[in-house]
Structure prediction request, 475 residues.
Amino acid sequence: MSTGSRNTWEAWARSVPPLACVSTREPCPDPMATATRLARAGLAGQYVVYEADGGVWHFAAGSDVSVTADTGGITARAAGRTWTSRTDGRPLAAFAGALSALRDEDDEGSRGEENAGGRHFYGWAAFELAHLLHADPASAGDRPLLHAMVPSVEVTLGGDSTVVRAVDEAWARKVADLLAEPAAGQPSARDEPVREGTEGIIAAGSAAYGRAVARTVGDIRAGLLEKAVVSRKVPLPAERHPDFPATYLAGRRANTPARSYLLDLGGYRAAGFSPETVLEVGDDGRVSTQPLAGTRALGADPAENERRRAELLSDPKEIHEHAVSVRLAWDEMAAVCSPGSVVVEEYMAVRPRGSVQHLASRVTGRLRPDTGPWDAFASLFPAITATGVSKRAALQTLARHEDGPRGLYGGAVFRGSTGGALDAALVLRTLIGTGDEAWLRAGAGVTAQSSPEREIEETCEKLRSVAPYLRFSED
Prediction:
């Protein structure tokens, strides 16, 4: 999968400095708060905090090295220089081609950095990329669809150690000084959520959303598709400015996500608590995806939570919605995996995710020798649980019934490596900002059995995973 001049990307890759300074420190007692403190420090123009599997937090920052792709072109930056190429309507292929040049540099042994698994990159994919992959290219728009940063400094905060990798001693000292600072004066990790006004925020636009659900049910009953995940945007008041790091810290304490992230990257700011991964690819070629579909509220009363759990496991609408999602996940995995390797390792378990509980399954496989992580990404993106079945018909339905483009919502935030690993979180349960605007968004899976009232209720249940934990700047 490659688009663009090989010489172009080789020249760019040679200009990317290695993370030559590596040091290991004692583990931090609170890696979540430490990662948030690093983000707030403003070390560089772009940063990402990414919570991986197993309670490991990664912080990455930099301004100099990036790759951005849209429908028409791709731009790579490094060492104060800029490289551009056409994408010819295939931005994902061009994006993968540029990043693969970093792998080629590693393979030549010219880097010498102490970094198992290769060099890491962090980025996002906008939902509208889906239209190029599966539906109508004209609906993709002209905004950036993919963006990645190769950091100047990366800090891995694990249970056993803190590892700092930097391009030079100056960057390493900056981080070391921050890590040595006492945590006093940082936002309290145990702030109580501010619930005043929460219900008013999450109710915005619910009537129009109910009408969109009704129209979608009509499309499904007419045989146009089986399922569509219809969402609604909830703008925040223009006069209030969200504090993204404080919101992330407060919200992550109260949530139980599969992944979480805090970023200011490529024009987007986000603080999110992703309930599922789009895909996880290991260096060894093992790939998995984790569809969640079927929802009930999760509250403080254990008996009521158990009642809702039993209801979820026996509701025909929820079971059907989940089953068709798993079926399509299987098909999409089979398209890039070795024959006979695709299996459903977990089926219809119930997972707590903040203010809701979901039916959850996991489908795994092993990539064919002729495919790589970005081929898997192309097959699985966007997540079935953010689009519908079939994807093409669902995307066409969403374009008709949703108000405006989704942007980051329903897309992915990812961390990958030149060694072939790729971990991509589905962007749901997320505070998103760009320019002077900030918003929440939530959706629900609509099937032939759906009612507008229940789907409105489901979006409110999901919004309660974020809205009560919003924090705002004092200025």
